[in-house]
Write the structure tokens for this entry.
Amino acid sequence: MKFFIDTANLDQIKEAQDFGVLDGVTTNPSLMAKEGITGADNILKHYVAICEAVEGDVSAEVIALDFEGMVKEGEQLAALHHQIVVKIPMIKDGIKALKYFSDRNIKTNCTLIFSAGQALLAAKAGATYVSPFIGRLDDVSTDGIFLISEIREIYDNYAFETEILAASVRHTMHIINCAKIGADVMTAPLDAITGLLKHPLTDIGLKKFLEDYKKGN
Ligand code: E4P
């Protein structure tokens, strides 16, 4: 399973890259705003800075909601850097834009997926990635992980090449459950990724090893 970091914070992106397990980055307009990155020019510059800080795919979201606007913005984003993946919302014109970019070998990430039917449509249109938002489904008492399993089954039935990018991942159990089900990618905040490191028995065991080493020296 590929690990993407879900942030626009450059320090965290660099820390995850140094950690050695990072395969890419996802951003969205809310994550950009959280970092105080506003205005079209600053946002575009920030995408380039992210691409230069990491190896792997970097999702950059279009703001337009109509086909022509998405194409124009998506082409501008894709021209910024070869690592850019154009992030397109799951709406009717978004499906048309996914097909447009797929036909031109430009990578896409279909965002705001909340049902298996939406994921099926995005795959039919040739999306590179689909992003089911598991945390937001959990927030409304709906099993986000179950949606991942439904999409996995559908994609495997027909050998769709679209990758399942589990998004809105909030904690380490989400990551583990995504890996058990066979999500191709998960995107999470840095603390959820580093949370995988933690186990009290590791800490206790390490402390004992070091104490015993000192006894013999
Ligand atoms: C990433 O592509 C999504 O935009 C992001 O994971 C959404 O996460 P949230 O539901 O925690 O805002």
User: Anything to note?
Assistant: The mean pLDDT is 97. The first helix runs from residue 10 to 19. The domain at 2-215 is CATH 3.20.20.70 (TIM Barrel).
